[in-house]
Amino acid sequence: MIPVIIPFYRRQDQLDRCLRHLQQQTIPVDPYIHDNNQENLYFTRAINAGIQAHLQCDCDYMIFLNQDMYLEPDTVEAMVNFMDSHPECGIGMPLEILMNHPEGHALVGGQGCFPVGSHISGSPQGYAHDEPLLWANGCCQILRKTMIQEIGLLDKHLRLIHSDSDYCLRARAQGWQVWRIGAARGQHEQGVSVRSSDLELELIKADDTLYFAKKWLTGDLYRELACDGGKWTIQAVRDTVQQFTQGRHAIAEMMAKE
Known about the structure:
With about 260 residues, this protein is an alpha/beta fold. It has helices spanning about 10-25, 40-55, 75-85, 145-150, 165-175, 200-215, 220-225, 235-255, and strands spanning about 1-10, 30-35, 60-65, 70, 90-100, 105-110, 120, 130, 140-145, 175-190.
């Protein structure tokens, strides 16, 4: 049985729909829900709690999933079949079809990581094939347990954003591959709220961005692994970090005045 880890916050209707889709999967899954309404760990630590709860379980893979991502009935089976046949793959993702997009476009893999993530997108029909990726979106990922045991948990210092791209970069740096699985699809509703206040949310995102920059962009490894790595000279990194630091200070000052 495949554990499916879901950080849950506020939208019970989304969680209910997500679970109905999991009940329709063609192979058994075991949903693990961390209720951020009771203890708000945000995204990364909620995922880590689910991973830790299943490290001793008899499973080869784990999935983490947004509450507003609704998997098609054969998606988990398609992801497991792909992972079984590609032992070098540590992380896989399905096509993420945007429900509210007027043309029904899908997000199908990560491109740039900094200062915010950018995605490959287009018609789902054009991306119904398997393809190695630079990084996979954290809306839905399947993780190989042996990879988790080798590289560890997601970085808890990245509370809300960047933890998906960070984890993929770490996996690739240690020889694992990241893939889009063309036969796997899910409908992403979007619009889930994870904030207690706009300023608090923006402060966390600024902190995550600065931490990611300090972790990855001051050395050569990011320039080797990322498609946009070549443009991040030391000076470009310093300038961007300075801009985000100033923005972070401005947010903190506004919060102090409230």
